[in-house]
Amino acid sequence: MNPFLSEFETPYGVPPFDLIRFEHFKPAFAAGFAQQVGEYEDIEDNPEEPTFENTMVALERSGATLNRVARVFYNLLGTDTTEDMSELAKEVGAQIAAHRNRLYLSQKMYRRVDVLHKNPDPKWDSEQLRLIAEIHRKFVRAGVQLEDDQRKRLSDIDEEIATLSSQYRENLLSESNESTILITDIEDLEGVPKSMIEAAAELANKAGHSNTWLFKANRTTLYPFLTYAKSRTHRKSLYAAYLNRARRGNEQDNAGIAQEIATLRVEKANILGFSNYASYILLDSMAKEPQKVLGFLDQIWEAALASAKKDASLLQNKMNRNGVEGELKPWDWWHYAEQVRTEQFDFREEEVKPYFSTDLVLKGAMSVASKLFKIQFKERTDLPTYHTEVRTFEVLTEESSNVIGILYIDYYARASKRGGAWMSSYQVQSTMNGPTIPVVINVCNFPPPTQDSPSLLSSGEVKTLFHELGHALHGLLSSVRYPSLSGTSVVRDYVEFPSQLMENWGRDPQVVPSYAVHYETKETIPSHLLEKMAAASNFNQGFVTTEYLAASYLDLAWHLQEGPSKTADEIEQEVIERIGLIPEIAFRYRSTYFSHIFAGGYSSYYYCYIWAAVLEKDAYALFEEKGLFDESTAAKLLEHVYSRGNTKDPMGEYRLFRGSEPSVEALIEKRGLRTE
């Protein structure tokens, strides 16, 4: 029996992972596509005049089987992929693109939606009007008003891009697992934390290497290795392995794929009446147009670059004082930044890491959410999961103990998991067919426990945990009627605001002691260490902001092209020269491992994190003024941000919460980017 072909008979509708097998996916996708096409045809061929119920609600109710299988498949593709799943993803990706166009390029369906859009019923409420406006916009933006041959070409382009994106993703996962350095002499590990050495020994042993240490070129390993390893040679080797992933001229090289995708996107934009893809994409954003985004980035770039140059001079001086000749290189930055930070603030990242065990940080983050939103988390050990490391929680109201959502957590890095961290949904909240609770998941790549210690997080990983829980809360606290307007279904440059806002509580000195307890001594983090953390918090922000902004400019450079795409090397060099990126700093993501824009839905949108940072700095200032857990402010945050979904204009809702527009100046000040 294929479990996807009927409603899940599990508590709360969670996926029955214990019953799901790989062989279920392909027939379930086929059945799901066929079922929804039949539902589309029923709507299109309905002889009655279009009504909200027989058109909009019918569309919202369609695709139940496809939703079930797609949500499970794509979550597992990110967490526990196999060669078979990667191959199926390429096939299914093109089918999903074609299926989407079956709807949004259907003139019969569009005519029904258009009638409702042009003739609103005075009895419709704001959410009904919003649903019609959003669905109508998707039809128009997809190209439904174009000629037949143009619609056919758009459909072909989308299928080609879907296939290429799947290949890009598969190549990067393979390269991330294969890009390693093997160290054979223990003396070359001087300075590397004990926990990293133990993990590298375990990894080498699993790979068949005894008495050696294997380090993967991923961000989880890279940054601490660059920070602490005294061997400049090995720092350079690991950095080069990271920088050249999917760019080695082999079968997993993504440079050509990125170029193909960009060229196809230009063609798509041209067919739809735009000179470049960024202009087409950003029309749906809060920013609306590329020039506004570039102007926004430019406001921050000058301050960030000036701060980075000042820091580079400090690091160069420190390196030379240590007896190392020559110029500071990118693989030196983290190493000497840690030393300068230690000198200036008497603070070392390794001092605080023993206080940040993953379990306690999670409890702390959940405690923040509980205080803000009057909810509680109750762990379940009897719900089905897809991996032994996955944990599940009920989310309940504080007063009535009603279950309002289910949270899955999959935190530890493993070879089958793609890099990064993310939140996604197995089921979205809605009330259209009666109460349907959200089932969401947080996935991260934190260091797993070792034989001698629990999973311990860096301060950056603590930030990631709070960030992803913020995304989860955006889905869990949703309170809307229609599924397509639920939770995180908002524009890209707003969706990061609720998640980034949560980060602020995670680093607030009033909150940190609630979860920062030494895993061995059980001592709460001492006040003097908190003070040093706070004093050092803005150190190196010039570097962090500069490498991020450089990647944002790179994203836009790919998508502001107006003809056949240039090569990855050409585009990257042009961006470096245009913005004046200093050689000591590289793009946070280079073109061949920039999954956000070539395989992750963030094309032209990578700027959204710092756009959202302007909102979250401004929003948190209100809590700092009123009280970190002020009930009235938290209630407004829930009403206008976390529960609202896409039922209203996000900036309008932000103003109702905050009472004013945010300012870029606040972000520059908060990050300490002033150099005067």
Query: How many helix segments?
Result: 26
CATH fold node name of the largest domain: Neurolysin, domain 3
Biggest beta sheet attributes: 5 strands, mixed
CATH class of the largest domain: Mainly Alpha
Quickly count the domains: 4
- N-C termini distance: 69 Å
Low-confidence stretches: none
Helix content: 55-70%
Specify the structural class.
alpha+beta
In total, the number of strands is: 7
Describe the protein in words:
With 676 residues, the protein is an alpha+beta fold. The protein folds into four domains: 3-173, Orthogonal Bundle (Neurolysin, domain 3), CATH 1.10.1370.40; 182-243, no CATH class; 277-327 and 539-670, Neurolysin, domain 3; 354-525, Neurolysin, domain 3, CATH 1.10.1370.40. It has 26 helices and seven strands. The chain has helices at residues 22-44, 52-61, 64-79, 83-104, 107-118, 126-142, 148-178, 194-206, 219-228, 232-243, 255-271, 277-282, 290-321, 330-345, 349-352, 358-373, 459-476, 492-507, 527-536, 541-559, 568-579, 595-598, 608-626, 631-642, 650-658, 664-670; strands at 180-183, 213-216, 375-380, 391-397, 403-412, 422-427, 439-446. The strands form two sheets. Strands 3-4-5-7-6 form a five-stranded mixed sheet, sandwiched between helices. β4 and β5 (403-412) form a beta hairpin. α23 packs across α26 (664-670). The longest helix is centred in the middle third of the chain and has 32 residues, at 290-321. The radius of gyration is 25 Å and the shape is globular. 45% of the residues are buried. The mean pLDDT is 95.
